[in-house]
Amino acid sequence: MSTTAVERDPRLAGQMKNVIMATLASTIGFWGWTMIGPLAKSYYKEAFHLTPGQLSALIAMPVIVGSVARIPVGALTDKLGGRIMFTAMLVLTSIMVLVTSLVGQTGNYALLLISAFFLGIGGSIFAVGIPFSAAWFEPHRKGLATGIFGMGMIGTAVAAFFNPRMVKIFGYFETHLIIAGVALVYAIIVWFFMKDSPVMKGKKAEPLMPKIKHALKDIATWQLCFIYGVVFGAFVAFSNYLPTYMSNVYNFDPVQAGTFAALFAACAVIARPFGGVAADKLGPRSVTLMAFIAIVVISILIAQQFASPAVYYALFIVMAIFIGFGTGTVFGWVGRAARPEDTGTVGGLVSAAGGLGGYFPPLVMGAVYGANAHYFWAQIALAVTAAVALAISLFIKNGGKPTHRK
């Protein structure tokens, strides 16, 4: 019997509340995860007398660890559920934010790196929310669920905006104490008020390593890892490197460049759930292809380094929107391409690939600019990589428009 109304699973009452709670958990987790970066130059460089190489290693440590740790954390979420894992990640983040604040006053760089390593584990909270959110929504609305949850990555922008200002107002230790308290209080709220989807309850838990091995045997996992590594890598690259780019090319001062980078990140974050919704309605393949075509074209245009402010502002904002669309639709695809019991495992692998993918574009852009004081070939490299991702997207399974909504 056909119907024009979309059928809702009665077991999933409270779905939006739980996904919004998960989004807030991710925002707070990302805030704590990126404690070090915003304070690197203003505090750690001077307090520890760090060289540029030591400073880069310190900033990179939690981000790299947070990316890699998403693989086991995603698999553990399939096994233990999102409520337990969200609570554990927030408690760990709270503890490590405090530990980092104490170590940050010792002047011991080796201890600070160790602290940054364990702080980085908290960044894997993203891999908890993908299977948790997907399980709370019907198959034809999983893109919406993961798109909403993906907005939690705004926590990095929260850290960049608030942490330096809080240190100025409250002090170094007090700032860490406040953020650790926020994470701990929200961990308690999660424990008592968040629920795992009844769809996932009662499923037989499988051992961790066999789940990862099974996921890696599916070519779709590798394909999704690559395309997310490209699109999320572009987000990370532009969000982090845009201040340098705008300063080198258009002579922006630090405040102007930082504000524009924040605007870019905000546009991408806001566009993410719309990409998920579009994937639900049109199929993830068509939306992903549209995003990559736009990234290819805009990358080539950006490479021209137009002098008109109206042109380069418009190009970067449109680029942010399509990057956000792309990040939203990929995780809508994960929920279709993976078995329900493997969603966390595959999501962890894919999100890890995205985090790691963000490190290559800045390195390439820095090397290219250092060689010839121009970003042309770096932008062309991004366009070519996006074109490869576009081609791969044509062959990933279950990417078409839904034929039924049950």
Describe the protein's architecture and organization.
This protein starts with 14 loop residues before the first helix and ends in a 13-residue tail after the last helix. Helix 2 packs across helix 3 (52-68). It is mainly α and 406 residues long. It folds into 2 domains: 15-203, Growth Hormone, Chain: A; 206-401, MFS general substrate transporter like domains (Growth Hormone, Chain: A, Up-down Bundle). The radius of gyration is 21 Å and the shape is globular. Helix content is 77%, strand content 0%.
- The gyration radius over C-alpha positions equals 21 Å
What letter string, H or E per element, gives the SSE order? HHHHHHHHHHHHHHHHHH
Percent of residues in β-strands: under 5%
Q: Going by CATH, what is the homologous superfamily of the largest domain? A: MFS general substrate transporter like domains
Largest sheet: none
Number of strands: 0
Q: Number of domains in the coordinates?
A: 2
Residues in helices, as a percent range: over 70%
Low-confidence stretches: 1-6
Helix/strand class: mainly alpha
Task: Provide the CATH architecture of the largest domain.
Answer: Up-down Bundle
Count of separate DSSP helical elements: 18
The name CATH uses for the topology of the largest domain is Growth Hormone, Chain: A
Measured between the Cα atoms of the first and last residue, the distance is: 11 Å
Shape: globular
Which class of the largest domain in CATH terms?
Answer: Mainly Alpha
Q: What is the averaged pLDDT score?
A: 85
